[in-house]
């Protein structure tokens, strides 16, 4: 059954949405893994990338209250927090690295995402970027999802283009892929009615790409969507990537049910691996597929490397968003631990920067 | 394998070292499907009761044992033990797994009295006392293994867990558990138990200092005995959990001074076996042990998601719901999992969950 699709892939052809559906419906995870590995090896050989990075969440106060999110708070609610720029700088100092993460001595990248704060002006974000840039000139800044950028453009009254240019001018290097969730409008309206539409998310990304800002893309799966919704989502990403080539990596995110409004259960390990593999096969114009170990756990992430993933994201110090929804993973991993996982999967670890350039140490 | 032919040690070794992991998984999955075509995945509701943590063996891979004089040393009182069993039965449990350290204060009478009283109070399967405990009781009472087993069986012991096998290679045992019984005696206990009509499981703890050859030796010894007796119900491979163990500490120390063979490619410490290593062993076990019907996935050491994947790499059983578990938890590895979680995890992988008893008879479908 999978033979036709396999032949197509091996001949370097693109598969259709219906063929992707066949892949989701197959029980033959072994052939699926082989096809995905073939694609991954053609693109990246045996290389598997990781980065030394840390996360900063400037605030969890958010005017959107998405049903799948356990992180966000309303202003004044118990557990709400907001960091000042000084506090952010303080967190970025190596002296702040504690206990488990103590062997991580430097970062290549800071990953900044947060809630849509009701009062903070656009200048706060520009100031944040500039201050980080001044204090840590060699640190790359990966910041703000399309949702946050859209919000900034609304609070500043600037166009998307002007907003993104200002962010770039103040130090933004690349953008993460969050906030995509699932594009299907029916599902989206049940998951996150306040959040920008899928079309708008794609529009922000297209604008960023046009301005030379590379971004990632994500998909949140395992909640109330079906396979068809996932494929539609992938298709829209593939179409945009055909136009811009601005996506660096695709990161499928498995839904975490704890402390969220919609509840439910964790996706299965098999579903995680299938989703990675099908993403790798379907998104033939993406260079990288990331197994985000924070969400998948260290074990499934390692197996993902046999199902088409070529990137493990990073050391990720101080992850808060997934952990507030019951992440089963650690809060950070050392480069040594990541390297070990990669080697034991028979792959070659490559430490990268935020543009997927190899770090020469 | 296609023709149902048994693989040799040499072939096993080659598969283990060279085969592509997905290919190995595919083979194991095919065998699982042939042995269990009804797509049922079983589990048991039971509780691990560790009656004492005092142990003279002090194995290097274990974080559970204490010295007799240690402030944390304990022997469970009968009241506590019975209330644990009571609770197990109320939660739908059909078995208790009762195991403990080799405690010099406890003699044969302790065991027989415990079993008799337990059996007179509760209708529950007692799956208890791994071979090192059996041998310790036998030696101190000056009885043969067979005599000891007969006495314990008569007192109420139903079946025997496969613990204490670790790796059935004396070279490895000499390093990781020098005071523990060697492979020959472990196998002897199992053989005698099987001859007396008692069912047992077999386990393997990998990921310490063993080589591929040791693993094949282990599988081969289990397969040979099963040919003779047919008394093993299941095989359960699980991985060494280095947290809080002397073995991990000594490796770290040695690595600091000088690299040793296995440690060289493992940098400065023993890492817990990764998912790929676990699945490789699991699949190989399913392929090699053609005479053992059931292979257990160990969610306790691997987590639910990897246990789900394990169902496609040869496993057909989810082990126990573990109302209580202490030994693995003492290494710092703890997954919070309920019976509902286990049932859902099995369903989401496309299998039909079923509760079984000790003998792999199905009690209830979910």
> Roughly what percent helix of chain A?
40-55%
The percentage of residues in β strands of chain A lies in 5-15%
Computed CA radius of gyration of chain A, to the nearest angstrom: 19 Å
User: Order of strands across the widest beta sheet of chain A?
Assistant: 5-6-7-8
* Low-pLDDT regions of chain B: 258-267
**Residue share in helix of chain B:** 40-55%
Average pLDDT taken over every residue of chain B = 90
According to DSSP, the number of beta strands of chain B is 10
Question: Which structural class is indicated by helix and strand composition of chain A?
Answer: alpha/beta
Provide the structure class of chain B. Answer: alpha/beta
Largest sheet of chain B: 4 strands, mixed
Q: Oligomeric form of this entry? A: heterodimer
In short:
The complex is a heterodimer of chains A (361) and B (366). Chain A is an alpha/beta fold.
Molecular structure report:
The complex is a heterodimer of chains A (361) and B (366). Chain A has helices spanning 2-10, 17-25, 29-44, 85-92, 122-135, 146-156, 160-169, 185-191, 198-210, 227-244, 269-282, 293-304, 335-344, and strands at 47-51, 53-56, 109-112, 140-143, 174-175, 214-221, 247-254, 288-289, 311-314, 348-351. Chain A has 361 residues and is α/β, with parallel strands linked by helices. In chain A, helix 2 packs across helix 10 and helix 9 packs parallel to helix 10. The longest helix of chain A has 18 residues, at 227-244. Chain B is an alpha/beta fold and 366 residues long. Helix content of chain B is 45%, strand content 13%. Chain B is built from 15 helices and 10 strands. The relative contact order of chain B is 0.16. The interface between A and B is medium-sized, with 32 and 32 residues.
